[in-house]
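Chapter review. Work through the record for Cupin domain-containing protein before attempting the end-of-chapter questions.
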Amino acid sequence: MTIEYATQYRTRSHIPSEPGKPYFIEKGMGDRAHLFGDLFTVYAGGEQTENTFNFFTCEGAKGDIIPAHMHPDTYEVFYIGSGAVRLFVEDLEGEQHEKLLTVGDFGFVPKNCPHAYRIERHHSRIIGVASGPGGTFERFFENLGTPTEELTLPREPYVPKPHKFGTVPQEFDVRFLPGQQWHGQD
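Structure tokens for Cupin domain-containing protein:
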């Protein structure tokens, strides 16, 4: 049996709201949110790690590239647990890099580097870790997207209302880059 907690984000969560408590979460039972066509599951975040890192998964079906963005204060890791994901990154000198990551592959995105990804195979899972001096951004997914109790991908993509793009990203160290183009995007 897994313990449930009430947090500032949810009335029911398997994640304690304060640091210093060991805990265990069964597969898929973290705090879940739908955003675009993906299911994000947070297992550890700022509250548990004193804002040093977060740990989450992103599951999705083959689809469109997610919007280009960057994190001014956050480093991000992409580790592929299943399927395949194409990662697009632009380094600080403006050189673009693009790599198809498959099971067991790892991608690192430094802070301030524009990036995006596209899930290339159905049933893909990204295991993500983010860390930086500004804290963590794991609550971005449920604030821009929508919290869910479902363990599956959204039936219909969840596209946030336009006003959310003007407020939520900045609060969670995310800067969207609408004009960003990628060489291998097509």
